[in-house]
Amino acid sequence: MVDGQGPATVQNGRWDPLVDRLQALRLAAGEPSYASIAQLVTERRTAAGVPDHAARIARSTIYDCFRPGRVRVNVVLVREIAEVLGAADGDVDAWVARCRQPAPALAAPPDPAPDDPGRGPAEAAPSLPRPGVLALLLVAAVLVNFAGNAFHEALRLPVFLDMVGTAAAAIVLGPWWGALVGVLTNVAGVATSGPASLPFTLVNVVGALAWGYGVRRLGLGRTLPRFFSLGLLVAVACSAVAVPLLLLLFDGSTGHSQDTIGATLAQLTGSSALGTAVSNLVVSLGDKIISSFVALVVVAALPASWGAWRHLPLLGTAGAARGHGGLAEHPSSG
């Protein structure tokens, strides 16, 4: 039997296979809430004669056991969770032993190019779909961008929604795959918008990098508040690129309703550049926050085997595996 008293420590990320098993158990058990799991563990302890004050456990503590990227785990608690979710005797011992196996030595860092052209050597990458499926996903992401823009134009919305596909690709496949979607979108956009689409390729690329690295490097996919802040970050980054392009190439004009806001602000401030900057940022904030959450729904409907949930712990495993698009509970949820 594995020594189960207190937390165990292994190399960062090496507990992820055990977390995967726990996620699968929760899914197989009907996806009970973390509060329900905490109640089951408490009842199990009470039945074993543990005093009430010692038997109680917080929902956030249970949630923490399902979080990937951990350095330490409480093996005793993991065993209790696994047992109330229906694991067989000895399963947890086997999982822990597997996680504690030394990693094979590598002669040199792996080349990041095959899986994600923008991944550094220290950054773990989820498995990508087969090349044919990958190509279809990239095309689909580009079409989603065009669909969002068509929706914007048909309803004359104040937001553009033309980067939803870029966001989804950057989150699921990686920041540079998202950047590729952005480039393809703007190049193809020449057919409908003319050459004016090309300079804004840089905006699409910057947005993809912000979304992709935001969930991978900054951990902005862990909770809903963090993911909301990711939308804010993308909006600011995109505006920082778009405003100089508008001022240099189009005299601050966009040809959309944003121009009305800019003209009003220019009259109030006496500066057309400031009016363009503020109006673009206001529109970009709404656009990128909405696009982020629409992309989140898209990502939740994709197969969990593609690894998107590793960068978005706020997504429920069931939502990703079954295509429910649901959001998992986190400590602040009900």
What is the total domain count? 2
State the CATH topology of the largest domain.
Arp2/3 complex 21 kDa subunit ARPC3
| CATH architecture assignment of the largest domain | Orthogonal Bundle
C-alpha end-to-end distance: 36 Å
Structural class: mainly alpha
Strand order, biggest sheet? 1-2
Largest sheet: 2 strands, antiparallel
Nearest-integer average pLDDT: 78
Beta fraction? under 5%
The CATH first-level class of the largest domain comes to Mainly Alpha
Low-confidence stretches: 1-6, 8-12, 105-109, 112-126, 317-334
Q: Which percent bin holds the helix content? A: 55-70%
Strand segment tally: 2
Rg on CA atoms, Å: 23 Å
Question: With helices defined by DSSP (H or I, 4 residues minimum), what is the helix count?
Answer: 16
Shape: elongated
Order of helices and strands: EHHHHEHHHHHHHHHHHH
Structural features, described:
A two-stranded antiparallel ribbon has the order 1-2. α2 (about 35-45) crosses α4, α7 packs antiparallel against α8 and α13 (about 260-270) packs antiparallel against α14 (about 270-300). Mean pLDDT is about 80; it is low at about 1-5, about 10, about 105-110, about 110-125 and about 315-334. It has helices spanning about 15-30, 35-45, 50-55, 60-65, 75-85, 90-100, 130-155, 165-170, 175-190, 190-195, 200-215, 225-250, 260-270, 270-300, 310, 315-320; strands at about 5-10, 70-75. The chain starts with 6 loop residues before the first strand and ends in a 12-residue tail after the last helix. The longest helix is centred in the last third of the chain and has 29 residues, at about 270-300. It is built from 16 helices and two strands. It has two domains: about 5-100, no CATH class; about 130-320, Arp2/3 complex 21 kDa subunit ARPC3 (Orthogonal Bundle), CATH 1.10.1760. It is mainly alpha-helical.
